[in-house]
Amino acid sequence: MVFLISLCIALIFSLVCGDSLKKNPVPFYIGTVAISFLSIVAAWSDMAMPAVITKWFIPIVAGGGLTGALFVIVMYAGAFPNRSLGAKTFIPLRGPLSIIASINGLGHSIAYGLSYYKKAMNGFSELSTSLIIFIVLSTIMTLIMLPLFITSFVSVRRKMKAVTWKKLQRTAYVFYALLFVHVMMLMVPPALKGAKGYDITVFVYVFIYLSYLVCRVAKATDATAEKLPRRQLVLVSLALLVATTTVAVINANVKKPKEKLETEKIEQAADLPATNTLKDGTFTGEGMGNNGTIAVEVTIVDGEISDIVFTKFSDDAEYFDVEKDGKEMIDRVLQAQSADVDTIAGATYSSEGFLSAVNKALEQAGQ
Ligand code: HEM
């Protein structure tokens, strides 16, 4: 969902601000630096923030949604048939859009990447193979993006030989491929486990990349670019996009059996006694996470939840880091004095397993 919204924002921005962006791009670059910086601060902050910041601003700006959407537009611009409306609209915007996407991509790498690099510094032996591959590929992708970013500035481009510049720009194809792998490595595992929303992102990215490949190959071979009935092609593409997104949205909203079970357990929490009727003491509870049981100890003092600690946890740290995400969930429960709180985006199963464990402990305290 974050990606679809980011794509809408990026498209509206390109169409509404396109002319100003071509004429005077610098204020837009400064604006992107400022917004990206704010998103990093928000993503790293421990302060409680309004839902619009945690649910939308951070995932879209710091979480990679916007950078992905802008790069998709830059990539697609090169696939429109020559002299078509798409080519006329987006090709002149490719340079400024890729600079904005890169600035935001760097912000995202800092906001989300640093914690991964910190883990890597402690030794690769503590990381799973898939996480090591993810970190290595993400780093290569960022390194490929840097020269593309710098040479997108007109002043730098003018100083380069045209042939050298064109050769360098070809590495963009490797970058696009790595971007696809990056998103798939992140989104496919939770989508397969039935986590809500991830399948939409997978569907949309697969659709965009497949249709890009078809259009780009057609343009490169020049066999079909002129002969294709363009209006029909656009209609078929739009129909496919609407169909895949509809299937994905329906699929994402149909509760999977496990998810349903966990939700029911959490809904039962609403029937629990108010926390001030809770008995003082330390109570234990268990819930089901991704890889197994999550166990917690909940301490009640003066009828209030005063402390929660994890006593058992075996989920992968790349989805739910007990030090960071676990602390965040504990803070949410302590603040709300209830287990009826939002889960962490991207770690639905682990969060729900944790909340279910807290509920079990609270049930005992309420007896
Ligand atoms: C050129 C640099 C990069 C680009 C263009 C990029 C792009 C993206 C995109 C498109 C997404 C999916 C966002 C969505 O649709 O919700 C994403 C998510 C993510 N990326 Fe990157 N990325 C970059 C660098 C990195 C690096 C270096 C790391 C860490 C080593 C990283 C870690 C992540 C993580 C953890 C997520 C998931 C965020 C979430 O849970 O919401 N990215 N990135």
Topology overview:
Blueprint: H1 2-23, H2 26-44, H3 51-62, H4 65-77, H5 85-90, H6 94-121, H7 129-150, H8 154-159, H9 162-169, H10 171-192, H11 198-221, H12 230-253, H13 257-268, E1 281-288, E2 293-301, E3 304-312, H14 322-336, H15 348-366
Antiparallel strand pairs: 1-2, 2-3
The structure holds protoporphyrin IX containing FE.
Protoporphyrin IX containing FE binds next to helix 1, helix 4, helix 6, helix 7 and helix 10.
Major sheet summary line: 3 strands, antiparallel
Strand and helix order: HHHHHHHHHHHHHEEEHH
Shape: elongated
Q: Give average pLDDT, whole number.
A: 83
Which compounds are bound in this model?
A: protoporphyrin IX containing FE
Helix content bin: 55-70%
Question: What Rg is obtained from the alpha carbons, in whole angstroms?
Answer: 24 Å
- Derived from helix and strand composition plus strand pairing, the structural class reads mainly alpha
Q: How many domains in all? A: 2
Low-confidence runs: 254-262, 264-275
Overall number of strands: 3
Please give the alpha-carbon distance between the first and last residues: 41 Å
Strand content: 5-15%
